[in-house]
Amino acid sequence: MDRLKTMWDIVLERKDHHDEKSYTGYLFESGLDKILKKVAEETGETIIAAKNDDNSALCGEVCDLIYHLFVMMAQKGLSLEEVLEETQTRNEKMGNLKQFKQVDRLS
Q1: Is 94 contained in some domain?
Q2: Which of 4, 14, 60, 102 could join 24 in a cystine, given CB atoms 3.0 to 4.6 angstroms apart?
Q3: The domain spanning residue 40 has which CATH number?
Q4: Backbone angles phi, psi at 79, to 5 degrees
């Protein structure tokens, strides 16, 4: 968890202090559309790596996806703490079976 927090802190630092040599700064300067395209691209690459049954490639793609999600979160003002709080809320609900609605089917 500490490594993810470190990555998050670096993303925030680059958002506040753009460095022309920083890829993260480039993403922030390019704007939300570019960031979202990268999230979509990394999501697709993660799916392909999972289907190819290559855990080494999958690990790399998951790291890329997390990084781009962090950039998107920072751009939108969503903090890591908010996400962690939500995961805690959801963890507290684990084990509670959701009640599904019965839907009448037409024959």
Answers
A1: no
A2: 14
A3: 1.10.287.1080
A4: -85, 155
Q: Is residue 9 part of a domain?
A: yes
Tens-of-pLDDT digits for all 107 residues of the chain? 799 999 999 999 999 997 778 999 999 999 999 999 999 999 999 999 999 989 999 999 999 999 999 999 999 999 999 999 999 988 887 766 666 666 666 65
Contact 8, 70 (CB under 8 A): yes
Token couple for 36: 């979202």
Dihedral sign for Cα atoms in the order 42, 20, 17, 6: positive
43: in domain: yes
Q: Judge whether 62 and 3 are in contact, CB under 8 Å.
A: no
What's the number of domains the chain is made of?
1
Model-wide pTM > 0.85: no
87 inside domain: no
